[in-house]
């Protein structure tokens, strides 16, 4: 069955989809409407549900499977689904939420093995113990949660997949630049986004928690490193440096980091994080683009469209 992200503008759609998120707004005529993000395993698409009464809002909540008929439209460089008919799926439709959830291309077991091996290779006992302690503390969530609600790795097990890709990048870069401290770099990769297991609500229909909105994953993780060090009886410079690496990994204050990177490994972590996130966005946008055409606009990449060459793989 064709995935929702593989339809082209002008094509008709008749499909079951899962409501990923719902936002209520008011149109210029004063009538309320809902912006639905609908998904299947191929990704998601936006749709508007006009003149949405209160009972309509109750009927179409996140994690609801719906049967939709409509057409695909190109709206300001992005595909949208224009709804003609919509209804919630019932038991008679025989649909399960698991049928619509996108997951990482690697198994949780394989990803856990990769991360465990990198921790095993750490030489500094303080850095190794703190990293292992926090990963064990949030082991299940780490393997299940997405890395974000949108833009990159926003799928089940996306957080672990993001970390595994970054660890492999970190190893290659450390091979090329042996002056880098591998323990700090690997620990930074593993811990930098681990606060998202508290910042985000879970692997399906993900939203920000109260802690996520008020504190954010960077602050959450800095606190977690401090608590772990205290519980393990670890003192010293390593704790401060690990906190700094997490604190600075977004690179700039306007991107959410209270401090810019001020040690070499923090600077490299920022580049690795940015590179992996952007490659994920590009691959996902170009995967649904035909050779010789431009992708839909990628908001997190300056709202640019990207061309897919005919000889592209």
UniProtKB/TrEMBL annotation:
Gene3D superfamilies: Hypothetical protein af1432, Nucleic acid-binding proteins. SMART domains: HDc. Keywords: Hydrolase. Pfam families: HD, tRNA_anti-codon. Residues 162-278 form the HD domain. The keyword Hydrolase applies. PANTHER family: 3'-5' EXORIBONUCLEASE YHAM. This is 3'->5' exoribonuclease Bsu YhaM.
């Amino acid at each position: 069955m064709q995935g929702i992200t593989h339809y082209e503008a002008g094509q008709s759609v008749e499909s079951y989809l899962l409501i990923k998120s719902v936002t209520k707004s008011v149109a210029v005529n004063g009538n309320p409407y809902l912006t639905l993000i609908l998904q299947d395993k191929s990704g998601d698409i936006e749709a508007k549900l006009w003149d949405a009464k209160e009972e309509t809002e109750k009927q179409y909540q996140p994690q609801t499977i719906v049967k939709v008929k409509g057409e695909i439209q190109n709206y300001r460089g992005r595909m949208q689904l224009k709804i003609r008919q919509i209804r919630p799926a019932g038991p008679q439709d025989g649909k399960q939420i698991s049928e619509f959830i996108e997951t990482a291309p690697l198994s949780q077991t394989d990803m856990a093995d990769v991360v465990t091996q990198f921790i095993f290779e750490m030489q500094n006992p303080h850095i190794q113990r703190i990293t292992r302690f926090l990963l064990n503390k949030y082991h299940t969530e780490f393997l299940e949660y997405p890395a974000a609600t949108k833009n990159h790795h926003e799928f089940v097990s996306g957080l672990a997949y993001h970390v595994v890709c970054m660890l492999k990048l970190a190893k290659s870069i450390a091979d090329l630049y042996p002056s880098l401290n591998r323990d700090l770099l690997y620990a930074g990769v593993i811990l930098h986004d681990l606060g998202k297991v508290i910042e985000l609500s879970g692997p399906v229909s993900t939203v920000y928690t109260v802690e996520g909105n008020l504190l954010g994953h960077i602050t959450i993780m800095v606190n977690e490193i401090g608590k772990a060090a205290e519980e393990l009886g670890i003192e010293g410079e390593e704790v401060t440096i690990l906190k700094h690496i997490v604190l600075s990994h977004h690179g700039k204050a306007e991107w959410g980091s209270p401090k810019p990177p001020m040690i070499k490994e923090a600077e490299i972590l920022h580049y690795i994080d940015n590179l992996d996130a952007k490659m994920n966005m590009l691959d996902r946008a170009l995967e649904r683009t035909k050779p010789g055409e431009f992708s839909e606009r990628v908001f997190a990449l300056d709202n640019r469209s990207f061309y897919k060459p005919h000889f592209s793989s």
